[in-house]
Every structure is written in structure tokens, then in C-alpha cells.
Amino acid sequence: MSATGIEALVCADIARRQALGTAKYGTTVAANPLPLRAWLQHAYEECLDQAIYLRRAISEIERLEAQSNNPPPQPDPIP
Known about the structure:
Blueprint: H1 5-25, H2 36-68
């Protein structure tokens, strides 16, 4: 069974990222000899970047809602 819809798009994105990474670093993730701590540091930094991108997008939505003077109800805070 092959992926369809959004899943197929994600698979294509992964394949593109793999090709870019192999071209940039000359190796695959599987063949890269970095220690586990380094992999975890890379993942942590990517998560920090993701938080910044998400907050920026939320701020943009808030700005657009404020301009329209019709903001939707706020979600409950995350506990």
C-alpha cells in the first residue's frame, strides 16, 4: 500500500530533505557517526526553531484578526 493525500506529500518532502542532506553533508543520517548526544542536540534546536515559527504564525493570525475586528474565541490555555 502506498501513501496517498497528505501522507504522500509528507513522504515526498522527506525524500527531498534526504536528497538535500546527502548533497550538503555527503552522507545519510543512518551512516552519520555522530554520537547520540549530538543527534539529541540537533533535534532540540530544531524544536526551538519550530516553536519560533509557530509563535510567529500565531502572531500573524492575531494581527489579522485584530484588523478584522472579529477575533474568534480564545482557546483554553494548555495546562
